[in-house]
Amino acid sequence: MARTGEARFAPPANPPRRGAHCPRGGKRPPFPSDACLGHEAAIRALLNATDPDLSAFRQRGGRITMYHGWADAALTPLMSIDLYERALAANRPDTPGFFRFYMVPGMFHCRGGYSTDSFDGMSALVEWVENGTAPDSIPAARVEGGRVTRTRPLCPYPALATHDGQGSPDEAASFACRPPG
Questions:
Q1: Tens digit of pLDDT for each residue in 74-109?
Q2: Is the dihedral of CA 161, 164, 166, 171 positive or negative?
Q3: Per DSSP, which regions of the chain are E strands?
């Protein structure tokens, strides 16, 4: 049995060709049968992030930055919010010390949408891992026709980018990350 935080599935050294283990001479039927889903289910078990206990990851010094678009039509944003809230419960209040989650207003699945979908979460993560500087916000931009038309801070959940009431609603400098309410 794998210890907490370790993979519970090791893919075979020579994975079968897709459909090779399916009925009808290796051709995938129009509707997947149980025989066809065995390998996919094992892959899903490895890739699906559903275990909120990240204690082993945290103990090894791991850091996570996760984001989700509020306008994602492929996967409901509530899935990510639920995972983060379960991680908070499982890993206690120090969870933001190793795991930061950012909701992106107006963003579709991974990119696109109606608002600031251009941002560099990887550099924020590298800065955190290599220099110990946790991202209190991540700068994001809306780019249209090769031109930046709006900037906003992405705030660690549940904080919200709150307008100061004076500056331009298209400039990140007019916003601060604040708790909801």
A1: 999 999 999 999 999 999 888 999 999 999 999 999
A2: negative
A3: 64-69, 99-104, 118-119, 138-144, 147-154, 160-163, 175-178
